[in-house]
Specification:
By secondary structure, the protein is an alpha/beta fold. The chain is 37% helix and 12% strand. It binds pyridoxal-5'-phosphate. Pyridoxal-5'-phosphate binds at residues 62-64, 88-89, 91-92, 134, 160, 162-163, 184, 186, 196, 198. Residues 62-64, 88-89, 91-92, 134, 160, 162-163, 184, 186, 196, 198 line the site of pyridoxal-5'-phosphate.
Length: 380
């Protein structure tokens, strides 16, 4: 037995590189004893709005709360329908249900794993009130047809860019294309905090004002409540940490891209693609010549005998992950929505085949070669 261990993510390595700056930022917050919202949060909001080319940004308590507050700002009511993908992290659908609205799913494009725009139209009804496309794994959804159809039907679009801060679609940044966009600062995202945190972006000044009020229990003037909101505030400590990390975000995402293209080469050379045993992720929409930037929050392959391969890699000290093993319409909590197995075949197939490999910025070429060697070994 060797003792090689390759994790999915190595946040300790990241912290070691930036420790003096992070420690100083944290100390400054303690010195100020100003912990909730305040100048650090405002600075982060301005920088994230600028970074993502959105007009406004509002710091909130998590990516999930960012989605929830967006739906609240749009006045989503019980029995309204909100269209989204069946293949994402649970929050995307969960927030719809928490307002007693109804999630309506549209199957995915098997290449990008993102909502298939061609299938959107037939899901729109008179009760549809919003659309939430998810930029999964770090790659944007094909937004143009979604934005066009949504504007024809006057449906607001919320981009779930929790995994895709900095990603681009035809020169436009994730979070700047819809009426609203959301980011998550969960520690495993490309820009991760020291706990939970999130951000809403918007191009719309009146939604911006409403989001800020909803974030503090619906009160603009303290103890006078215009509407029922919640405690959706971002902590100053999170903002301070994120302000440091934001300076490194592009270089980290670039390292992830390099790792992804190195994997692509290794898989190409391995012969596994030709034999149809492995499919590597594709960065798409390149045909138009427009720059579309994938930030590889995950490097996700499709693999034959996925579960056995995963166990084999685990035995060799290689961590992998399955995002996501069960599509929303087959989740236990959603049985009452009335969907059946077979309703979204691409999402179902993906859930059986996908495997995410370590792609974090500090991953070395040697480690990647070891991983692909072990995958090859499994199939031989
Ligand atoms: C992480 C994630 C969220 C939720 O973010 P939290 O900060 O963990 O609440 C929502 N949608 C997607 C696609 C995510 O990956």
């Amino acid at each position: 037995m060797n003792n090689i261990k390759i994790p999915m993510l190595d946040l300790k390595a990241q912290y070691t590189c930036i420790k003096p700056k992070i420690d100083k930022a944290v100390e400054d917050v303690f010195e100020s004893q100003y912990f909730i919202l305040g100048p650090k949060v405002e600075e982060l909001e301005a920088k994230i709005a600028h970074y993502s080319e959105a007009s406004h940004a509002v710091g909130v308590s998590s990516g999930t709360d960012a989605l929830l507050i967006c739906l609240m700002a749009l006045d989503i009511e019980p029995d309204d329908e909100v269209i989204t993908t069946p293949f994402s992290f649970f929050s995307t659908a969960g927030v719809i249900s928490r307002l007693n609205a109804i999630p309506k799913f549209v199957d995915i494009d098997p290449v990008t794993y993102n909502l298939e725009p061609k299938k959107l139209k037939s899901a729109i009804t008179r009760r549809t009130k919003a659309v939430i496309p998810v930029h999964l794994f770090g790659q944007c959804v094909d937004m143009d047809p979604i934005l066009e159809l949504s504007s024809q039907h006057q449906l607001p679009v919320i981009e779930d860019a929790a995994q895709s801060i900095g990603a681009q679609y035809k020169n436009r940044k994730a979070g700047s294309m819809g009426d609203l966009g959301i980011f998550s600062f969960f520690p495993s995202k490309n820009l991760g905090g020291a706990g939970d945190g999130g951000m809403v972006t918007t191009q719309n000044p009146s939604l911006y004002e409403k989001l800020k009020i909803l974030r503090v229990h619906g009160s603009q003037q303290k103890y006078y409540h215009k509407m029922v909101g919640g405690n959706f505030r971002l902590d100053a400590l999170q903002a301070a940490v994120l302000l440091v990390k934001l300076q490194y975000l592009d270089s980290w995402s670039e390292k992830r891209c390099q790792n992804a293209s190195h994997y692509n080469q290794l898989f190409e050379r391995s012969g596994l693609i030709k034999k149809g045993l492995v499919k590597t992720p594709k960065t798409v929409y390149k045909d138009s010549g427009d720059p579309n930037h994938h930030i590889f929050n995950q490097y996700t392959i499709r693999a034959q005998s996925r579960d056995k391969l995963r166990a084999h890699l685990q035995d060799q000290g290689i961590s992998t992950a399955i995002y996501y093993p069960v599509p929303f319409h087959l989740q236990e909590c959603y049985q009452d929505l009335g969907y059946l197995k077979g309703d979204f075949p691409e999402a179902e197939k993906a859930s059986q085949e996908v495997l995410s490999l370590p792609v974090f910025p500090e991953l070395t070429c040697d480690q990647q070669e070891y991983i692909v060697d072990k995958i090859k070994e499994f199939y031989s």
